[in-house]
Specification:
226 residues; alpha/beta; 7-stranded mixed beta sheet; two-stranded antiparallel sheet; 9 helices; 20% strand
């Protein structure tokens, strides 16, 4: 019910079916399951995407990738690698209908989630398993957690989110290096990474510059493949 109704009538009785739902959700949260998985949805930019254990939960810092792509000229093309729930690609199409937006993911299960989100939101984004580099900009929020960081992550992450979408080798850059090495020379990339990885990511690209998130941390690097 709307929050205003709760404030207006705080003593309203909770029907038994609703009480059972609430009780089950409280039990799941007590087991440290993320709220987004419990509710099955997560707000991102101006849209809301459905999420479950097949995909990562979109995070606020990833919105910086969308902002970077919003600077593209009219009619430009963008491809989102490792799209997961489709949040980045769908948010771009929502805010810039003129853009030609496509996305890919190696996970068939993730593509199912992204496709369902696109259909529900009525946003036309082409989806596939293979990345496309024949575009004006490739954006990617790939795994960038170091192997030795995994055990120190919150239970909400370790216990529920897909490890393969988070961890990328000893320094966390295996997936980013693979993308850069597989892209043709001159491909323009926008890559999300951990703040401490910014210098290393810049070293992989030509004419690289790093954008800071709202907390002032180096979060997204733009540059061209050498």
């Amino acid at each position: 019910m709307p929050r205003a109704d709760v404030v207006a009538d705080p003593a309203r009785a909770i029907p038994p079916p609703a009480a059972r739902v609430i009780g089950e959700r409280i039990r799941r949260r007590g087991a440290r399951e993320p709220v987004a998985y419990i509710l099955g949805r997560q707000a991102f930019r101006h849209i809301e995407v459905a999420v479950d254990a097949r995909v990562l939960i979109p995070r606020p810092e990833t919105e910086l990738l969308v902002e970077a792509a919003l600077e593209l000229p009219d009619g430009a093309s963008v491809h989102d690698v490792g799209t997961g729930s489709g949040a980045i690609a769908l948010a771009l199409k929502d805010e810039r209908p003129d853009l030609e937006v496509s996305a890919s993911d190696i996970s068939v299960a993730a593509l199912e989630v992204a496709r369902a989100n696109g259909q529900r939101l009525g946003l036309g984004v082409a989806l596939g398993a293979d990345p496309c580099f024949d575009v004006d900009l490739v954006v990617a929020n790939l795994p960038y957690v170091r192997e030795d960081e995994w055990e120190g992550l919150q239970p909400e992450i370790r216990g529920y989110e897909p490890r393969g979408a988070l961890v990328a080798g000893a320094d966390g850059l295996d997936a980013i290096r693979e993308l850069v090495s597989g892209a043709p020379g001159g491909t323009r990339l926008a890559l999300e990474h951990a703040p401490g990885q910014a210098e290393a990511v810049r070293g992989l690209l030509a004419n690289a510059r790093t954008l800071e998130d709202l907390a002032g941390r180096q979060r997204v690097t733009l540059g061209s493949v050498l």
